[in-house]
């Protein structure tokens, strides 16, 4: 049965950050994900997660930067990852090591590594692809070296993002993602399938989900409606049907709710009720 994670960069925006963790636990989520943990000290975050019985299931490697201060301002400055950006080797390496530090401190085994956005004229360069693959391979090796006995292996994930929402974003199709993962062939790399982006770019999220499951590379799923990126209870992305499909396929991993609620987060959770813990209060215990 898939497990639902609240994406705190999208859900509970009506609350300050600390209160989002409490609300997610109360609403029956066992896990949370969010874009950037780097605004907070890892020890403080780990304590908050523990206090609310929540598992950190995913966060992003820095969108840009090269120092902690630069990492913290990178998203607002327009950075969208560095993995394929020319001239960003230093920022990429710094970001991966920082993300691995946070993953170890938070007991989190999935990190989304964004590829970067390019001006249109660069978007199809073969040398960019080679650079992207080389950097992903290097990062996977760094993740492998951080393995500690008893902890789940840290896996670096790549996700196709639609270019309407993120113009020039390098990785925008499932085909690109799967081909890269198969070519590098590293156990510390995997697929993050965001059914919203997938439906926006390629259509037929259900078929793409089957393809992702069949690839053996699927490590995380995210979901939102098309159109609107709100609760997937109407429109082309049928949330309950897709969760049932994951269940039927034996997927026991996490599905991040990465959408903007139409009104309050809690009022919009009805569609997900069968997959949330009745009565809430957080996860039963850590799971990989
Ligand atoms: O936007 C998404 O979709 C994500 O998963 C983020 O990690 C990046 O914006
Ligand atoms: Mg996503």
Largest sheet: 8 strands, parallel, barrel
Low-pLDDT stretches are 282-288
What binds here, in terms of ligands, is:
the ligand O=C(O)C(=O)[C@@H](O)CO, magnesium ion
Q: What percent strand?
A: 5-15%
CATH-assigned fold name of the domain at 14-119 and 148-220: TIM Barrel
Number of helices: 9
GO molecular function: hydroxypyruvate isomerase activity
GO biological process, one term: glyoxylate metabolic process
Organism: Vandammella animalimorsus
Family: Belongs to the hyi family.
Please give a handful of descriptors for the protein shown.
288 residues; alpha/beta; TIM Barrel; 8-stranded parallel beta barrel; 9 helices; globular; binds ligand LASSHYVV; binds magnesium ion; hydroxypyruvate isomerase activity; Hydroxypyruvate isomerase; isomerase; pyruvate; Sugar_Epim/Isomerase
Task: Tell me what the structure shows.
This protein is of the alpha/beta class. It has a domain of 179 residues: Alpha-Beta Barrel (TIM Barrel), CATH 3.20.20.150. The chain is 36% helix and 13% strand. The protein has 9 helices and 8 strands. Strands 1-2-3-4-5-6-7-8 form an 8-stranded parallel β-barrel, surrounded by 6 helices. Helix 2 links the parallel strand 2 and strand 3. Helix 4 packs parallel to helix 5. It starts with a strand and ends in a 31-residue tail after the last strand. The C terminus is likely disordered. It binds the ligand O=C(O)C(=O)[C@@H](O)CO and magnesium ion (MG).
């Amino acid at each position: 049965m898939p497990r639902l994670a609240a994406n705190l960069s999208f859900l509970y925006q009506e609350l300050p950050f600390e209160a989002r963790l409490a609300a997610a636990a109360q609403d029956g989520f066992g896990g949370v994900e969010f874009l950037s943990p780097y605004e907070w000290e890892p020890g403080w975050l780990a304590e908050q997660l523990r206090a609310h019985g929540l598992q950190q299931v995913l966060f992003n490697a820095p969108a840009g930067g090269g120092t902690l201060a630069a990492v913290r301002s990178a998203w607002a400055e327009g950075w969208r990852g560095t993995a394929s950006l020319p001239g960003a080797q230093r920022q990429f390496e710094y970001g991966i090591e920082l993300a691995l530090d946070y993953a170890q401190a938070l007991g989190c085994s999935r990190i989304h590594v964004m590829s970067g956005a390019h001006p249109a004229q660069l978007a199809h360069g073969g040398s960019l692809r080679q650079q992207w693959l080389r950097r992903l391979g290097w990062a996977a090796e760094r993740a492998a070296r951080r393995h500690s006995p008893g902890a789940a292996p840290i896996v670096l994930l790549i996700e196709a993002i639609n270019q309407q929402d993120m113009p020039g974003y390098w990785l925008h199709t499932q085909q690109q993602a799967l081909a890269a993962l198969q070519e590098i062939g590293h156990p510390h790399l995997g697929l993050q399938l965001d059914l919203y982006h997938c439906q926006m770019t390629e259509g037929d999220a259900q078929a793409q989900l089957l393809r992702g499951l069949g690839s053996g590379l699927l490590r995380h799923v995210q979901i939102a409606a098309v159109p609107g990126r709100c609760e997937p209870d109407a429109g082309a992305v049928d949330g309950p049907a897709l969760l049932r499909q994951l269940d039927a396929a034996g997927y026991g991993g996490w599905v991040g709710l990465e959408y903007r609620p139409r009104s309050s987060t809690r009022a919009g959770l009805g569609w997900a009720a069968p997959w949330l813990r009745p009565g809430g209060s957080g996860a039963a215990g850590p799971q990989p």
